[in-house]
Design goal:
With 298 residues, the chain is mainly alpha-helical. Helices cover 52% and strands 5% of the residues. A hairpin with a 5-residue loop joins strand 3 and strand 4. The protein starts with 9 loop residues before the first strand and ends with a strand.
Length: 298
């Protein structure tokens, strides 16, 4: 009982009644792992197995939620653990190290602190496994062609594989890879758009496809030739980023970063007034995007 008074400690943004299914995560200016001057993890890393979600090299790209701990009320949280926590609580190796260290210091499995951090670890591990199941497919021939800069040959190989594939999701992954090469390496934006849309139809729950579509729309906005039209194209890109984070927790941070960076590129309300356009109106966007968006302002 004497420890209970020391732990007002912990709460999580977790629970069906209080947390949205896909929370919007803010991007904070915490120090990166490369800025940490000490290295307390080598023994922990060496002790882990090679199973996904346990080995120290496996890091999830997206957390589902964050655990917040009241350090001042917890005697077990040393300065070392505090720095680890504030550096990167979304890193599974750090969460695992904190868990192991707290257990070593005498925390019980029934303790609420252990339970909450274990829940964070479990979510991070699940994110790793989900992303591993959805990673775009590759082959040595395709990889070699890309590494050699022979992008058209890589696309040809992917199209052959796609024609021979019967599974819809795998077809979508091939189409996604083709679109990525066309956009990033060849600058074939319309072809990339078409293949990305096909990938979205075949593998609708793969968020990176919608990130790619948003990137393509943003690049195509440069061809609109008018500021207002460019800003409409920005909204089209943002809508894709928003959809990406709604369907796939693995891309929440990437989507949020893009959305935040584009807030200053949204149209001003006074720009819509002379055009008779209000927030919430539906507007068709050309510029090669050819979609209808819902107007919003800064």
């Amino acid at each position: 009982m004497k420890y209970l008074a020391l732990f007002p400690f912990l709460f999580v943004f977790l629970g069906s009644a209080t947390v949205p299914q896909h929370p919007v995560l803010t991007i904070s200016s915490v120090p990166s792992s490369t800025e940490v001057s000490f290295n307390p993890l080598p023994k922990y890393k060496a002790s882990q197995s090679d199973e996904p979600g346990q080995h120290w090299r496996h890091r999830p790209k997206t957390p589902a939620y964050k655990v917040r701990i009241s350090f001042s009320a917890c005697e077990y949280f040393t300065d070392e653990l505090k720095q680890l926590y504030t550096t990167d609580i979304d890193d599974i190796e750090i969460v695992g190290y904190i868990l192991e260290h707290l257990r070593t210091l005498g925390r019980l499995e029934s303790d609420l602190t252990i339970k909450m951090i274990q829940a964070q670890y479990d979510v991070l591990q699940a994110a790793i496994e989900q992303e591993a199941d959805q990673e775009p497919l590759s082959s040595s021939e395709v990889d070699n062609a890309i590494n050699d800069g022979n992008y058209h040959e890589a696309i040809r190989l992917l199209k052959v594989a796609m024609d021979e594939e019967t599974d819809g999701f795998r077809k979508g992954m091939y189409s996604f890879q083709i679109a990525s090469i066309q956009y990033k390496e060849l600058g074939l934006f319309e072809q990339a758009r078409n293949n990305a849309r096909q990938a979205a139809e075949l593998a609708g729950n793969f968020g990176k496809t919608y990130l790619l579509l948003g990137d393509i729309y943003l690049r195509m906005s440069r061809n609109c030739g008018e500021s207002w039209k460019e800003r409409m194209a920005v909204i089209a890109a943002i809508e894709k980023y928003e959809h990406a984070r709604e369907i796939d927790t693995n891309v929440v941070i990437e989507a949020n970063r893009r959305i935040l960076n584009l807030q200053g590129s949204l149209p001003l309300r006074e720009e819509g007034f002379p055009r008779g356009v209000n927030a919430g109106d539906k507007v068709f966007v050309g510029c090669g995007i050819d979609e209808t968006i819902t107007v919003r302002f800064q």
